[in-house]
Amino acid sequence: MATIYDVARKAGVSPKTVSRVMNGDAPVNEKTRKAVEAAMGALSYVPSSAARSMRSNKTGLVGLITGAISGTPSATELTGLPDLVIVQAIQKKLAANGITLLISDTGGERTKVAELSRTLAQHRVEALIYVADYHRKIDLPDEARQQKLLLVNCFDQHGTPTIVPDDYMGQKLLTERLLEAGHKRIGFLTLPQDLVAYELRLGGYQDALSNAGIEFDSSLVQTAGLHHSGPQEVMLISEAVDYLMFLEDPPTVICCGNDRMALQLYGVLRTRGVRVPEQLSVAGFDDYKLISETLYPPLTTAVLPYQLMGTRAAEWLLAEIRGREEMSSQEIQRIRGPVVWRQSVIAQQQ
To answer: Quick one: 197 and 264 in the same domain?
Structure first.
């Protein structure tokens, strides 16, 4: 088996120069680099990653903890698996940059996070990523926070670097687009009030109205979403629709807390003989394409940018572990998604 000294002799350089080419930790001119790489190829030389990591403290490994892999199929039917989309985007970006992602799944048991963190630390990962299933506040054990840690789709009270969706701006942009289309009475069926996204999106909705000179009308806002789909959520949506449509000045469009709720709203309206969008426009939130693109008419919705969040997480981590950027404490990056305009909303006469 060839050694670094064999490569150095064949390339006509010192072993230290060969090491510089392999590790990329010092400048080497292009002619020398090509000579070393040619010698490595001719000798079928395979560098010892263990030895390199011992010397440089760089293992090329990043750990990731999530519950995405063990997510139950029933939970994917109408909501998808956003954390899995994030994980896939992280893995794709890191792999393209020569970093191996070690993925550990909690199996839905939060108590496993400490054990998984210790195991990944034993494999000398250069950093740890925790990906949550929805935008929420978490409290990870000390074992996780003792490592270089990045949170995605969640945040904590310790100021850990964080990447989350910009729920506020997503709803604000969607509401602004509806206002531009001539809608002045905009109904809003919100997510459950215990979710972080509830306050953020409600704030975006209110600010868009305020900026347009329209007074906020609390009667147009109804909490109708639950954490899981089912008959009870359909009942809440049905009751909210009845309330909104019997207002003295009913809405011309209804925004839903997510695309799943919009799907159920379509069904409720159909049972009442209300045509979408001719009699009432409908908008969602998520752009879960299994719903938004297959509904008839296709659904106008704000995008939750899960793929972009994963890509940005990987980019941020790559820059940090390679010394080009430092993830600062207290830093939160909010990733904004666009509004996708489809046929479920029509313009109102001005």
So the answer is: yes
- Looking up tokens 């998808």 gives 80
Using CA atoms, how far apart are residues 64 and 72, in angstroms rounded to an integer? 19
* Averaged confidence pLDDT in the chain: 89
Question: Can you tell me the distance from the alpha carbon of 315 to that of 186, in angstroms, rounded to the nearest whole number?
Answer: 38
The length of the chain, given as a count of residues: 350
pTM: 0.81
Tell me the C-alpha distance between 227 and 254, whole Å.
Answer: 20
Confidence bin at 75 (pLDDT 50/70/90): very low
Percent of the chain with pLDDT over 70: 90
User: Counting beta carbons within 10 angstroms of the beta carbon of residue 145, is it exposed (0 to 12), middle (13 to 18) or buried (19 or more)?
Assistant: middle
Considering the domain architecture, whether residues 144 and 220 belong to the same structural domain is answered as no
User: Which DSSP symbol is given to 126?
Assistant: S
Q: What's the rounded Cα separation, in Å, for the pair 272 and 294?
A: 21
Q: Provide the token pair at 69.
A: 């892999």
Residue 160 sits in the same domain as residue 171: no
Mean pLDDT of 272-291: 96
Residue 67: pLDDT band by 50, 70, 90 thresholds? confident
Helix, strand, coil tally for the chain in percent (to 5): 45, 15, 40
Cα–Cα distance between 58 and 85 in angstroms, integer?
27
Q: Is residue 300 a part of any domain in this protein? A: yes
- Identity of the highest mean pLDDT range in 65-69, 98-102, 107-111: 98-102
Partnered with residue 165 across adjacent β-strands are 335
